[in-house]
Amino acid sequence: MHTQGKAAEPGPKRIGIAADHGGFELKQHLIAKLREGEHSVVDFGDQQSQPEDDYPDFVIPLALAVARGEVDRGVAICGSGVGACVAANKVDGARACLIHETFSAHQGVEDDDLNIICMGGQVVGYAAAWELLQAFLAARYRGVERHRRRLAKVARLETSAPRDIL
Fold first, then answer.
1. What is the C-alpha to C-alpha distance for residues 23 and 83, in angstroms, rounded to an integer?
2. Running along the chain, 166 residues long, what does each successive block of 10 average in pLDDT?
3. What radius of gyration do the chain's Cα atoms show?
4. Contacts of 33 (CB under 8 A, 6+ apart)
5. Counting Cβ atoms within 10 Å, is residue 159 exposed (0-12), middle (13-18) or buried (19+)?
6. CATH 3.90.650.10 holds for 14-141
7. Residue extents of the structural domains in the chain
8. How many other CB atoms are found less than 10 A from the CB of residue 70?
9. What is the pTM of this model?
């Protein structure tokens, strides 16, 4: 069952990150940038670029850790970001979105309690990815009533058929 996240505290966070071969290089770059920013980083893999690896093997453990509160936020990367996003959203309590522009990076957290940012290692450059990640990490869930109401409807999908929600 979805539990709405608490507002993120300013300052360093415990960040989980995962990538397959399509996002491996970007993951390594972001890990270095996060550590420079004094964030604690948990690397869910892959630990080396392996062309035959599968993003769910890394993204699902990341999403589980985010949903359990073992890390504050998550970063999931594959070649396009799409597969990582689909996989992460299968985990109850994970709210992941493919992000390629700054507005959605912060608005997704502020309004939709986004807790995992997904990016494409083959479509987002290093500088843009770092800018997106900074916006995502700096944002705080606002908990406005209309957003809580909408998230509650979405959360009910985890235990009910869509026709029973609306």
1. 11
2. 50 92 98 95 95 96 98 98 97 96 97 97 98 97 90 81 61
3. 15
4. 130, 133
5. exposed
6. no
7. 14-141
8. 13
9. 0.89
Q: Is the dihedral of CA 92, 97, 102, 103 positive or negative?
A: negative
Which is nearest to 88 in space by CA: 20, 163, 140?
A: 20
**Rounded to 5 degrees, what angle do the CA atoms 38, 11, 64 make?**
80
Q: State yes or no: is 97 an active-site residue.
A: no
Coil, helix or strand at residue 121: coil
What span, in angstroms and rounded, lies between the C-alpha atoms of 131 and 165?
36
Q: Are 126 and 29 in contact (CB under 8 A)?
A: yes
| CA 155 to mean position of chain CA atoms | 17
Which residue type sits at 69? G
